[in-house]
Design goal:
- It is a single chain.
- This protein has 12 helices and 6 strands.
- The protein is mainly α.
- The strands form 3 sheets. Strands 1-2 form a two-stranded antiparallel ribbon.
- Helix 10 (194-207) crosses helix 11 (216-232).
Length: 249
């Protein structure tokens, strides 16, 4: 498949107008198929953007990632390299792959093409003479690598920015997880068991030991039953419920 796609344009391999009958997969409730709508994603403005990277194969009934097939690593291959056909979870999995850092590293050519369509500029250093650095006796036999134009932009700018973005997002996600680990029980404590509430409150109290009173754990358990009782009481006859739902809280 890799050799076949190397000589073809992505649009030729996408099979956008195919009937997708070969993609039929049987689930417990019904059969599901790949659909033409999966070739598009929604933009924040409300419009649709075509997924140029997504390829459908009529012979296998699966979808593939064009750049990952051509440039992806042979080891740790994703489902979009070997063929994806879980249509029940397709929207989530396609979007997840689309936002994956490894996938985006292979989309540099697409981003470059789109940028050139808007600016129509050329790399300023492509026609410049390469300066040769004076070699020293301990440099070794390896030739000096000089990056210019497209490769220089990709290696020196695009990939570092992408890696930094992924690193910062991972760091922020970890911070959110720590906050949720401490405060998450406050959003759904009415659905938790007494033991789960006590465990979460104990951890919360240990973290804020100077601010939380020992009675906090028992009070949260009692508050759970207070909320459950409110949910059983008609709203029009419960002044407390109306107070709790005001914007003052």
């Amino acid at each position: 498949m890799q050799d076949f796609w190397c000589t073809r344009d992505p649009n030729e391999c996408q099979h956008f107008e195919c009937d997708f009958s070969a993609s039929s997969r049987q689930y417990d409730d019904s059969k599901r198929f790949f659909s033409q709508s999966m070739f598009f994603r929604k933009h924040i403005s409300g419009g649709k953007i075509k997924r140029e990277w997504l390829m459908y194969s009529p012979s296998t009934g699966k979808v593939y990632c064009f750049p990952c097939i051509l440039f992806g690593e042979a080891q740790n291959r994703s489902h979009f390299q070997t063929g994806f056909s879980d249509w029940k979870n397709a929207l989530h999995r396609i979007q997840s792959h689309e936002n994956n850092a490894t996938h985006r590293r292979e989309l540099f050519d697409d981003y470059e093409t789109k940028a050139n369509e808007k600016t129509d500029t050329q790399y300023s250093d492509e026609n410049q003479r390469v300066r040769k650095r004076k070699r020293h006796h301990d440099d070794g036999p390896a030739k000096e690598v000089v990056l210019r134009g497209k490769e220089k932009l990709k290696v020196d700018t695009y990939l570092p920015v992408l890696d930094m973005l992924c690193t910062e997002l991972s760091r922020r996600l970890e911070a959110y997880r720590e906050i949720n680990d401490l405060f998450g029980f406050l959003t759904d404590f009415s659905t938790k068991s007494d033991a789960e509430i006590r465990q979460a409150c104990t951890k919360f109290k240990e973290h804020y030991f100077e601010d939380i009173e020992p009675e906090f754990i028992d009070e949260m358990v009692q508050y759970k039953y207070f909320i459950l009782q409110l949910e059983k009481t008609p709203e029009k006859n419960c002044a407390c419920r109306r107070v709790l739902q005001t914007d003052y809280w």
